[in-house]
Amino acid sequence: MNTIEKLLRSKPVLFDGATGTELQKRGLPAGVAPELWNLEKPEVVEEVARNYVRAGAFVIETNSFGGNRKRLEAGGIDRKINDVNIGAVKSALKAANKDAVVIGSIGPLGTLIEPLGETSRVGAKDLFREQTEILLKTGVHVVLVETMISLDEALLALAGAKEAGCEEVGVTMTFEVKANGVRTPFGEDVAKVAESLERAGASFIGSNCGNGFEEMLVVAKEMRISTGLPLLIQPNAGLPVYNGNGISYPGTPEQFTEFVVKAVSMGIDFVGGCCGTTPAHIAAAHGSLEQLRVK
């Protein structure tokens, strides 16, 4: 039995919340790659992950969202790609101990792929394969390709991860709820995304980031209708608010809990949080899910 099958035996499964915004609260400067702290402040990265485990998250993600060579190059640390990703896994595994499952996070390349940009399709797939190989050899068995806004890039990432030898790959997309329906920023609708990812061999799919709780419920409903695969839904804690002290997110733990209960009632298997969600959000949702199990 693989990891996803084991998780499904205990569904609904609670994932963790945001990492980047939690690191920023602890002093990570705006615009600095969170992955840099895998090298400079691994104890802080571990603390954030451990707080989510204590809050009740059963799955935590590695601090490796921007850990591909292309994105690390922008921060001048691409030569340390091995150390960045190895550090991310080690911190997560220490925090999880035996109380949570660790999944490797893989984000977009941060560049356009041909024919829209200069990065070749083969080159893009190789970049995703490279990062996945590092994550796998350091101790993760499942990777999550997340926050993808282009189906084409998502499929290349999925293919690269599988070429690296990862048998369990999840993919989550970011959607926009518009007058013409729920679509990615590149215009692909939910049905096309779900069908394409399922056909390409994704172990689970879903949506994260981009939307607050109510809009994400719209996305979740369409995704549940469109696929029989396990679904992961991770909303932001509302839309970010910019003020003199930086960025804040208005969504409360209580509102997040209401979202989680509604999502689970739709048949969503895995739920968690994205930008702005905190251990308090996860703890509140954990309490409600435990009550539902008792009933």
Q: What CATH architecture would you give?
A: Alpha-Beta Barrel
The residue ranges in which pLDDT falls below 50 over 5 or more consecutive positions are none
Provide the helix percentage: 40-55%
Order of helices and strands: HEHHHEHHEHEHEEEHEHEEEHEH
CATH superfamily (homologous) name: Homocysteine-binding-like domain
Extended strand count: 12
Count of domain modules: 1
What does the main sheet amount to?
8 strands, parallel
Distance between the termini: 28 Å
Topology-level CATH name: TIM Barrel
Number of helices: 12
The strand order across the widest sheet is 1-12-9-8-5-4-3-2
What report would you give on this structure?
The structure is a single chain. The protein has helices at 3-8, 20-25, 37-40, 42-55, 69-74, 81-96, 121-137, 151-163, 190-199, 213-226, 253-265, 279-294; strands at residues 13-14, 59-61, 101-106, 142-148, 168-173, 176-178, 181-183, 204-208, 231-234, 241-243, 246-248, 270-271. The chain is α/β, with parallel strands linked by helices and 295 residues long.
Summary tags:
295 residues, alpha/beta, TIM Barrel, 8-stranded parallel β-sheet, two-stranded antiparallel ribbon, 12 helices, 46% helix
